[in-house]
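DM from R.C. (forwarded with permission)

"hey, sorry to bug you on a friday — could you get me a structure for this? deadline for the figure draft is monday and I only need the backbone to look sensible"
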Amino acid sequence: MDTSAAITPVFCTIIPPHVLDKLARHDDPALSGPARRTLEHDARERTRRHLAAALGPTVRHTGAASDKPQRTIYDAGHQDNLPGSKVRAEGAAPSADASVNRAYDALGATFETYLKAYGRHSIDDQGLPLVASVHYLKDYNNAFWNGEQMVFGDGDGRIFLDFTLPLDVIGHELTHGVTQYTANLDYQGQSGALNESVSDVFGSLIKQFAAGQTADQADWLIGAGLLAPGVHGVALRSMKEPGTAYDDPRLGKDPQPADMAHYVRTSQDNGGVHINSGIPNRAFYLTAAAIGGHAWEKAGQVWYDTLTGGSLSADAQFADFAAATVAAATARYGEGDESRAVQAAWHEVGVKPAAHHGTGVPRQQPGQPQEV
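My reply, with the result:
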């Protein structure tokens, strides 16, 4: 692998803008205030990342790969000055701060899953040190990967709790880093929805790997435990049943579609990257459920091969990704149950694999336009 190759990072958050926008319009300032401040911060941060990308992409880490993670946790002290004060280094004793320890453990669980399941050495496969900052800003309702490190807010306590609580949220955000160093999918439209879906897939697999769960034992929820008591919902997203994760007067209803017939066309959220990701999410769930066993072993291996195989263009569409997963399944397992499971899953969600994938040219007319 060429470790000097350049990459262009993007700013990826776990809470979609449309959710925060709904909260920002609430009559209760205790709800609208934190949401509005989070939206304003995230907009500024996206601008910073775009400017950084224009000045020149970052360079791959060139350190020696190791089978041990190199983790450092910082306390941002509710400020916007990253990374903050160092509070726990690799191998140090647990902190008195539970957020610090959860972040440290989750970075380790993510590193371990990628290493043991896929032979990958950290985010860049070159031993990239893992850095995270906790207690970011005040009542910050998000967590994000900024191209260099993880950052966690404490939540407002009314809608969202501490963002270090769900392991899959942390795995999700770190996987944006993996995508950044591999397929580098554009964060717009269908390629952006694939970027988000890949993070959901491996976020869920990291949680399943840590718990030793099989596909039928997993909950297939993203962000379970993040919603505060009293919120009508179970998680941020459901891979098994997109569109059912929450239905709350303050949050609104989960808008994710489960198939192309209900594809959402919107100008918000980079073309609905957090919304339409429900379609490839369900395709992965259906694949894993059909194959059975531990989802990270076969279904996850196919998705990992697709992400890292070099066949995807940065602007790959759902049809391109579907074709690439079918090809990856056939290359690794032959034209057997695994390949048939992948094909059946994409068929069920209404995506026809492209005859020549990788060009990024849409080949299907999705459902009627909807605004969210």
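R.C.: lifesaver. Residues 250 and 344 are 37 Å apart (CA to CA).
me: no worries. The domain at 189-348 is CATH 1.10.390.10 (Neutral Protease; domain 2).
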